[in-house]
Structure formats: C-alpha cells, structure tokens
C-alpha cells in the first residue's frame, strides 16, 4: 500500500464472538456487473478464495487483517453496489487468506450496521429487512427492534442442499465419514467423536489439524463442486461437531468450523449452520417448526430452522443471533513504517 493511500475507515462488529470489520467507502473500483463478478475479479484467475489477486483492493484487505492492525482470525467485508435495486447494497467478504462467497455472521452484522447508520430505516418496535447481494446470491438480514434498540437479527440464506454423504477421508486421527452440503459455500461436516476428539478449547489444535487434513483430502471430490459456478466450488469450511442433549424444541449441537488455512470461527458459523440444517433435515432429525440450537466452541449460540420445505434448489433456512458494534477505526500507513501493510504469523 502506498503511503499516499488515504486512511481506511472501518466500523467493527462481532456476531456471537466472531469479528466483522466493515469498509463502506474509499475503496478502489472493483470491475464487474454483479457482486459475484467483483468477487471473481478480487480473487483473480483460478477461482480460489485462498489465492487473491494482488492489487489496490487486496492491499486494503491485507492492511485490515494482518498484524499489527488485525489478526489471523479477523473477518470483514467491503460494501459494494448491489446487483440491482432489489437489494440495499452488496458485499465482498474477506478473511486472512482471501475472499469467501458466503458469510452468515457477516450478513447479520451488516444488517445491524445498516440500521445503526440509518442506511435502512427501522421502526422503534418491530422488524427491518436488509437485503444484501453476496457472491452466492441475495440474502436477507431481518433486524429485530424493541423500545428503540436492536434485540437480535435473523439471517435468511440462499438455499442449502446436501451433495454427498459418508465420504471416507483418511486422517492422522483415523478414518472420517464426511457429509457435504452447499449453503452459499461448501461445508464438510464430521462428528468429532469419530476422530477421538471433543469440541473444546483444549482440543483446538487437534481440531484445526483434522479440519485442514479433511479440507485438503476433499479438494477434488465431485460433491464439493457447484454446478452453477466454479466460484462456489471447493470446500470452504470443515465443521467438526458433537451432539448435546436435545432441547424441547429440537437438536442441540456444538461445533468448531475450520476455514481458510486453519482459521477458527468463534461463532457457531452462520452459513455453516444452514449446512447443518440441511443435513439434519435430510436425516429426519429436524421437523417442521423445530429448531437447531447451535453452539460455538466459545459457548455462543445461534438458533436455526428450516422456513420452507425443500425445493429443487435446496432448503431455505434462517439463523438467529445477535451482533454488536465494537468500535470505529481509522487505519493509516506511516510512510516510514518498514512493515507497511503488516505481517501474518
């Protein structure tokens, strides 16, 4: 990044503990007529979200996600024009290793941000719908209000569909049987106990190692590919889950989602929750009106449910949680700073 580059201003939120850094202005132009095309431009040739194109936009991403201004678990989004006037805005999601096609926790944070900033008018009491174009399609964040404050947000995802079941994957922990589901991105699900692991903070190094091994092993599996777009193909996240006692309203699970080059989602993972809902519905474990109580490795919660019967494109799901603002920042580059945009450990 040139020292002459203007300051980068962000508004930061967290959704169930997972950070989301929003940049809504001062960005270099990103060629493309749709958000998906802009995402493909940002990633560059090859279509892999872990091999971003170097350029002015990616300089901003690296500035915000790398140390000392960010960290390896940082996540965020660049606000861009929508595909058409049916949405309020579009977004390009990014993380330490590049760009992603879906981000449920980010969509929830963006919905609350849109209401907080007045971009979308919200009632004193009631709901406001924020329509957002993301690389995987159009999603909605319904922001819930009571007595003039936001009390929660519900994310409606693109349809989720199961693409493969019980795929055998050899790991250093033993043989895993992996289920694959697309929910804006492709997620691989595996029961942690089948690998001799539990979903706990103490087990995080082993969970990350298992997640990376599974992701690499599935790189060429046909179930990971999306028929409509190479951009949506390939495993984005590996969900290692464990069963907890059911609630009166439905299943209860705890998970850790490993994405990118071993990053950990601090939330229960919004789009990953949609993938889990599709798998549970396919197993007959999630009936009409039932909820999945989905817990993260940090103990935070999302509640997910199917809102429409499965159709030819998949299962329409909603995920409920809460997002909170954590700060507003202006990031600069000192022309004498030899670290420039920073570093990653």
Strand % is: 35-45%
Summed over residues and divided by their number, the pLDDT gives a mean of 94
- Main sheet characteristics: 18 strands, mixed
Helix content: 10-25%
| Cα gyration radius (Å) | 19 Å
- Low-confidence stretches are none
* Total DSSP helices: 5
Shape: globular
Question: In whole angstroms, how far apart are the ends?
Answer: 19 Å
Give a count of the beta strands, DSSP E runs of length 2 or more. 18
Structural class: alpha+beta
- SSE string, helix = H, strand = E? EEHHEEEHEEEEEEHEEEHEEEE
Topology overview:
Blueprint: E1 8-15, E2 18-23, H1 35-43, H2 56-65, E3 75-80, E4 89-95, E5 98-100, H3 104-116, E6 126-134, E7 137-146, E8 149-156, E9 161-171, E10 174-182, E11 186-191, H4 204-217, E12 235-247, E13 250-259, E14 263-264, H5 270-282, E15 292-295, E16 301-306, E17 317-321, E18 323-331
Parallel strand pairs: 2-3, 4-6, 11-12, 13-15
Antiparallel strand pairs: 1-2, 1-18, 3-4, 4-5, 6-7, 7-8, 8-17, 9-10, 10-11, 12-13, 13-14, 15-16, 16-17
């Amino acid at each position: 990044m040139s020292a002459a580059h203007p300051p980068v201003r962000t508004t930061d939120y967290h959704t169930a503990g997972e950070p989301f850094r929003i940049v809504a202005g001062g960005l270099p132009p990103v060629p493309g007529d749709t958000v998906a095309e802009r995402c493909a431009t940002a990633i560059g040739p090859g279509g892999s979200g872990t091999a971003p194109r170097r350029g002015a936009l990616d300089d901003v991403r690296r500035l915000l996600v790398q140390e000392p201004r960010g960290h390896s678990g940082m996540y965020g989004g660049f606000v861009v024009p929508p595909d058409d006037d049916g949405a309020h805005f579009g977004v390009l999601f990014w993380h330490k290793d590049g760009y992603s096609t879906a981000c449920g926790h980010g969509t929830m944070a963006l919905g609350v941000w849109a209401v907080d900033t007045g971009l979308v008018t919200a009632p004193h009491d009631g709901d406001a719908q924020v329509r957002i174009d993301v690389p995987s399609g159009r999603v909605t964040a319904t922001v819930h209000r009571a007595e003039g404050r936001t009390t929660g947000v519900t994310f409606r995802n693109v349809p989720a569909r199961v693409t493969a079941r019980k795929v055998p994957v050899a790991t250093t922990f033993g043989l895993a049987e992996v289920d694959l589901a697309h929910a804006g991105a492709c997620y691989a699900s595996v029961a942690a106990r089948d690998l001799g692991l539990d979903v706990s903070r103490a087990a995080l190094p082993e969970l990350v190692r298992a997640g990376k091994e599974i992701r690499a092993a599935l790189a060429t599996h046909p179930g990971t590919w999306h028929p409509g777009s190479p951009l949506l193909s390939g495993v984005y996240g590996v969900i290692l889950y464990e069963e907890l006692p059911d609630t009166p309203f439905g299943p209860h699970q705890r998970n850790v989602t490993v994405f990118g080059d071993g990053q950990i989602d601090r939330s229960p993972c919004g789009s990953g929750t949609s993938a889990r809902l599709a798998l549970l519905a396919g197993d007959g474990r999630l009936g009409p009106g039932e909820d999945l109580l989905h817990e993260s490795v940090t103990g935070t919660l999302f509640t997910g449910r199917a809102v429409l019967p499965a159709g030819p494109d998949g299962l329409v799901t909603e995920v409920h949680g809460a997002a909170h603002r954590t700060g507003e920042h202006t990031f600069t580059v000192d022309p004498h700073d030899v670290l420039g945009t920073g570093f990653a450990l």
